[in-house]
Amino acid sequence: MQPVPRRRPPGRYDPPSRTASRTVAVLLAVLALAFAVAVAWVLYLRSTADDVRFRVVSFAPEDGAVRVTFEVTPDAGTTAWCLLRSRNALGEEVGRVFVPVEGRPDGRTLTVEHVLPVEDASVTGEVTRCRPATPPAGSPTSAPTAVSP
């Protein structure tokens, strides 16, 4: 005679639903993504809060230097420190300097021309940022070559 199989109460020992676990996983992934986007947005706003508006007008590589012309609008009575850099054909940085630009009392946009010395053949001249603060200690600094009135 064979033993009688035990029957368990229906619904009590069923395998867990896969739909519920997938829903929880998707919700957790969406929450994690939303949190990461919020943190990135806050960090972006903090890093650009003090930036001064600028625009590169032109650059011209020369022997041992690159001439960069840019427009900047510092607040009246403040000094904007603009970071200029140049890169070679491989994308390596070959020159970098912080240039101070004094704001005018009327708050006008200034056109600045600066000759940036470079260590190697240069193919770009760019302004990476302008901020109303002093440059980091030990950073190379230079006065602008020419500033429009």
Short summary of the structure?
By secondary structure, the protein is an alpha+beta fold. It has one helix at residues 18-48; strands spanning 54-62, 65-72, 79-87, 93-102, 110-117, 126-131, 146-147.
**CATH architecture identity of the largest domain:** Sandwich
Reading the helices and strands in chain order gives HEEEEEEE
In the CATH scheme, the class of the largest domain would be Mainly Beta
Major β-sheet annotation: 4 strands, antiparallel
The class by helix and strand makeup works out as: alpha+beta
Uncertain runs are none
Q: Return the CATH topology of the largest domain.
A: Immunoglobulin-like
Q: Give me the number of helical elements.
A: 1
Radius of gyration, in angstroms, nearest whole number = 30 Å
Biggest sheet, strands in spatial order?
Answer: 1-2-5-7
Summed up, the domain count is 2
Mean pLDDT: 85
Q: Which overall shape is indicated by the principal axes computed on the Cα atoms?
A: elongated
**First-last Cα distance:** 109 Å
**Beta-strand content bin:** 25-35%
Classify the helix fraction into a percent range: 10-25%
Beta strand count = 7
Report on this model:
The protein contains one helix and seven strands. With 149 residues, the chain is α+β, with helices and mostly antiparallel strands. It has two domains: 9-49; 54-147, Immunoglobulin-like. The strands form two sheets. It has a four-stranded antiparallel sheet, with no helix packed on it. It is elongated. The N and C termini lie far apart (109 Å).
